[in-house]
N-formylglutamate amidohydrolase (Sphingobium algorifonticola), 266 residues
Amino acid sequence: MTSEEERGLLTSRDAGPVDIVNRDGRGGFLLLGDHAGNAVPEQLEGLGLSKADMMSHIALDLGVADIGRLLARVLDAPFAAQRYSRLVIDCNRALSDDEAITPMSDRVIIPRNSCLQPAEREARAEAIYRPYHRAIADLLDERSLRNRPTIPVSLHSFTPTLAGDARPWHIGVLYGGGDERFATEVLHALRLEDGLIVGDNRPYQFDDTDFTVPYHAIAAGLPYVEIELRQDEIATSDQQAHWATLLAQILTSAAQKIGIQSTSAQ
């Protein structure tokens, strides 16, 4: 057996699917990045896309990896980030959803996603999707064993325009079902900030296409929030630092208002 030998879809030259930052963080949050990365397994040959495509919003949620790491430090919270592109497999979709491996995104055809056989879909699920969700479940179990109250915070970003339509919101707060108290507190606090256009389930509606929060938070009765940041708001390090500071303050305050005390590294 050589170091080059394949282990399913991923080889020894491929990174593991999940990057966990600050695993033992003691703060009251678990930060999640379903679309934080844009890696592609070597065997999939870049999915047949250009480097520009793989650096664009169709391949990943731009800025989320950086925001997540900043928040992990400020909030002393773990951050579980998917390293592989949403175009390989979308970890915020049920495996039964046809869009879990989409053949097209924002009018761009994904050549290696066309006419996939069931075995090919299963290989992506086994190598990338299931390890990510097992990692989240393990983090929640670890924190429960340590009696650490936990609020999952799912971090996403969205492009300023989609299919030619401008999207005016600076940030969106998504929620729908389960314990919505925390999400609505976050929404209220953001709306008090001068100059911010805040979307209430905008630019996306939280619905049955979402998987991560319903599966890990709503099913367990945990308070939660899914946050969408507009990508031109978090394009630079200064912007990212600003948003990390603001979100840390708002998340901490919202947790306290629903009776969950959060420690902070500040």
Notes: The radius of gyration is 18 Å. The chain is about 30% helix and 15% strand.
